[in-house]
């Protein structure tokens, strides 16, 4: 009841009325007859956008854990390369990284005979592996620095107590150190995941067909500009909202 009462406050009613009027104006005044023709391609683009975001986020976070751990407690021969990697990734534009992988490795691999004759060549000749690699390393570079701070923020007394009880190091890491570090970084991880979603349109520059490239194709074929962009904005807002909701629910379930 309290939630309904809060929702029915005057300023929120005015905002909802304005939003409803905007939706009605868009439905009546803008052109939507192109949707049936491009719907299959749009569905494929939405699916590819989501799976690229999910795969690169998961792989990037798995890589960020050893990067953060190496910087937090690793010896110099591990911490120095990890620090250099994070500095280079964070200091260069993601678009440049994507182009370097695609136009660099993508041009080098065809010149190596054993790669051209391998079973990987049908995949390496496509654009999406380089997009996944670039987005994964980018996410790992940013989250590696975040995980460094998360590991150092864990109470050292708990780790010393577990060590005093004779708990093996890997068990301490798996049961105490890593879970608490992940719990501390959850709000940041949710925001970085949304940023990863917003970074996926950059892969359209190397011919990967995702939802942004579909809207560009509609615009170039039909000269309709605003309608595809409006639907694109709605798609990103829905996915970003679902990501936010998922992480909030996860934060509520994680014990303090």
UniProtKB/TrEMBL annotation:
Cell location: Cell inner membrane; Cell membrane
Transmembrane region(s): 12-30, 50-70, 223-247
Domain ABC transmembrane type-1, residue spans: 46-247
Domain of life the protein comes from: Bacteria
Protein topology in the membrane: Multi-pass membrane protein
CDD domains: TM_PBP2
Keyword Cell inner membrane among record annotations: yes
Tagged with keyword Transmembrane: yes
Record-linked Pfam families: BPD_transp_1 (PF00528)
UniProt entry keywords in alphabetical sequence: Cell inner membrane, Cell membrane, Membrane, Transmembrane, Transmembrane helix, Transport
Family classification: Belongs to the binding-protein-dependent transport system permease family. HisMQ subfamily.
Name of the protein described by the UniProt record: ABC transporter permease
Originating species: Sedimentitalea todarodis
Species classification: Bacteria, Pseudomonadati, Pseudomonadota, Alphaproteobacteria, Rhodobacterales
């Amino acid at each position: 009841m309290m939630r309904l009462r809060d929702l029915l406050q005057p300023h929120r009613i005015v905002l909802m009325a304005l939003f409803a009027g905007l939706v009605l104006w868009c439905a009546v005044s803008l052109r939507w007859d192109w949707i049936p023709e491009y719907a299959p391609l749009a569905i494929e683009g939405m699916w590819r956008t989501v799976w690229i975001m999910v795969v690169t986020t998961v792989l990037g976070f798995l890589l960020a854990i050893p990067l953060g751990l190496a910087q937090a407690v690793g010896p110099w021969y591990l911490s120095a390369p990890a620090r250099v990697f994070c500095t280079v990734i964070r200091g260069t534009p993601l678009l440049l990284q994507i182009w370097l992988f695609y136009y660099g490795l993508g041009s080098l691999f065809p010149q190596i005979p054993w790669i051209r004759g391998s079973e990987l060549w049908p995949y390496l000749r496509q654009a999406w592996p380089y997009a996944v690699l670039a987005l994964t390393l980018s996410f790992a570079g940013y989250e590696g620095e975040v995980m460094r701070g998360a590991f150092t923020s864990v109470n050292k007394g708990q780790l010393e107590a577990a060590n005093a009880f004779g708990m093996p190091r890997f068990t301490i890491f798996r049961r105490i150190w890593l879970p608490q570090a992940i719990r501390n970084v959850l709000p940041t991880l949710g925001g970085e995941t949304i940023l990863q979603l917003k970074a996926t349109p950059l892969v359209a520059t190397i011919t990967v067909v995702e939802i942004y490239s579909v809207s560009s194709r509609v615009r170039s074929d039909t000269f309709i500009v605003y309608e595809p962009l409006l639907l694109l904005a709605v798609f990103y807002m829905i996915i970003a909202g679902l990501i936010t909701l998922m992480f909030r629910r996860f934060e509520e379930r994680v014990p303090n």
